[in-house]
């Protein structure tokens, strides 16, 4: 029974890695489309989001099946519940990549990135992709040092998010209302993606160390 | 054993109702503070959010304890997993109420609601409070007709959300960048609260009818 459980957990882990990689790819394409007004690439991200959704639903069904058939208790049970929570966060991260792609499509053929913020948003996009890739790596290697790197990258993301508002609210800002709306929404999405990544990384650390993390941690 | 399980579920339900009522109260105060620039009321919402967080964590621990001790299977198991998901969404709805209160505090003593949008935001706030109250009622009564009412209220919320952007992007918009940022964020928060409410209502309907809802439904 123990071996069956370990094999089931390995299956759960493989699926989480696959979903994290899909999210990283979606965010890479979404932020590239946002930076270059590449509407075809944006469409691709939007069309592919249901794949991430389906894979998270399938993973949840697997986790529920493991709970039903193998009736894990104690830390084994918490590992399976963690997987359900990680899956929900990854699904939301995929949605955020889709929202960025939708901003690109909405403004096309105009640029979605407001003037004067190109460097900031490029950096934020790179950080988000880095975070998602590190999550996949953390899932794969259980190297908890990666969780610190994820937290540090999220701190940089938060600073850049604040700097977007400083720019938009400064006297030098010449953007139209549309540019202000886009900057506000994009910055919020990119920052929120980082919050989810930190939340997921804490849960993966639990899988590696057994330190249970309460759910209310991604405010 | 069956009786013990039913008693445990009744406990879970009571706690979900309590949390939903706290969320409704938080949103009522948050939107009132936002409309009247009542910074003391906003502070109250911000100070009380940890209470909602703690109660959702305690509920999750109870659900995990039920899984461990009573080892439910089939639909009983899905009911407990649903409770975990509902709890996570309610916690996020509490966070959103806090975000609205933070907007109020950030702009104080100025008004956070931009000129020309007072009526729209008042209506959106009322709809959000109505949604949260209906969720508590749905949890209490299992009257699935309430889920339709929640969906209808969310549709109205979505229309108002779109109307905020139409207003902000119209030629008649005279708001400064700060007003545009506030309108964008507040509208996004109020609309997102509705998405969570619909997502929760679907899961409560499952508790009442046994129709399982996949998790990827609040995009």
Automatic annotation (TrEMBL), chains A, B:
The keyword Cytoplasm applies. Pfam families: PhoU. InterPro entries: PhoU, PhoU-like_sf, PhoU_dom. GO terms for biological process: intracellular phosphate ion homeostasis; negative regulation of phosphate metabolic process; phosphate ion transport. GO terms for cellular component: cytoplasm. The keyword Transport applies. Residues 17-103, 122-203 form the PhoU domain. Keywords: Cytoplasm, Phosphate transport, Transport. It is found in: Cytoplasm. It comes from the Bacteria. Homodimer. Belongs to the PhoU family. Plays a role in the regulation of phosphate uptake. NCBIfam families: phoU_full. This is Phosphate-specific transport system accessory protein PhoU. It comes from Microbacterium endophyticum. The lineage of its organism: Bacteria, Bacillati, Actinomycetota, Actinomycetes, Micrococcales.
